Amino acid sequence: MQLRPSIGILAGALIVISGSLLFAQSRDDVLAELLANKARAALDQAGAPAVSADFGLGSSDMPTRHAILSDGEDLDEGKRAAAARAVAAISGVGGVNWIDGTVQAESDELEFAPTHCQDDVEALLRARTIRFEESSSEIEPASRELIDEVAAALRPCLGSIIAITGHTDKSGPEPGNLELSLERARAVREALVRAGIPRDGLRARGIGSQEPVEGLAPSDPANRRIEFSVISTVPLKPTPVDTPGAR
After folding, report:
1. Cβ distance 130 to 226 under 8 Å?
2. 27-32, long-range: CB within 8 Å, 24+ apart, which pairs?
3. Distance between CA 71 and CA 170 in Å, rounded?
4. 120 shares a domain with 101
5. What is the pTM of this model?
6. pLDDT tens for each residue of 66-116
7. What distance in Å separates the CA atoms of residue 169 and residue 216, rounded to the nearest whole number?
8. Distance CA 214, CA 229 (A)
9. Which residue from 151, 225, 236 is spatially nearest to 192, judged by alpha carbons?
10. Residue where one domain finishes, among candidates 57, 89, 108
11. Which of 101, 80, 71, 105 is nearest to 205 (CA)?
């Protein structure tokens, strides 16, 4: 029994689309692997051979031109910044951030300026706080509406970098505070992504009890909070990856 022409055409189209997607995925894998190899060489030259640069290879995420750096915990801030700049200077790299969100790559091509979204978010958080289950990164159901309002306040400034910083009080050991504050910042980041804020503009970090609210004792529970920093960026110059080649 022969397929009807319309069904045959549809089947052919699906085959072509599937092939195109596989080709695109393969091309992205090749680009990510090329950038990873260049990053490895750049980090060695920058004196940071222990640092890893992840471009999404070997994970559930899609390959990306935006590098996530890790394994630099023992480096001082100057060397961490140098490592980030070395990777950011590679042609084709779209951006560089540390996995803990504490250091971002900077270059002469980037200028930062605060945006009005900062004031809008702070106004929302003056009267209410994003709350979590005790000793957990699980956001309380009552705070989900506030997360949606924060997302709405951030939406006019999409394209900016939004830093999400988790804080704790000093009631527990600091290593645990640091881990919990980072987990909570990541939970808020994921909630904002679900609310429609693009992940590539969000940076989550946790600093434990290091920065208590001015005027409060370090052990005061009111120090348990999430803060947002919103900065706008001048668009990066196109790289060869972004610029179409001549026909």
Report:
1. yes
2. 28/62, 28/63, 29/57, 29/63, 31/63, 31/65, 31/92, 31/241, 32/56, 32/57, 32/63, 32/64, 32/65
3. 26
4. no
5. 0.51
6. 778 888 777 777 788 788 888 888 887 766 777 765 544 433 334 445 567
7. 10
8. 17
9. 151
10. 108
11. 101
127 and 97 within one domain: no
Distance from C-alpha of 152 to C-alpha of 246, rounded to nearest angstrom: 41
* CA angle 226–81–114, rounded 5-degree value: 45
- Distances in whole angstroms, Cα of residue 149 to Cα of each of 120, 146, 152, 160, 195: 10, 5, 5, 18, 9
Q: Which of the 8 DSSP states describes residue 118?
A: H
Residue 239 lies in a domain: no
Q: What is the distance between the alpha carbons of residues 204 and 163, in angstroms, rounded to a whole number? A: 6
Residue 135's domain comprises 112-233
In terms of average pLDDT, the best of 7-21, 50-64, 169-183 is: 169-183
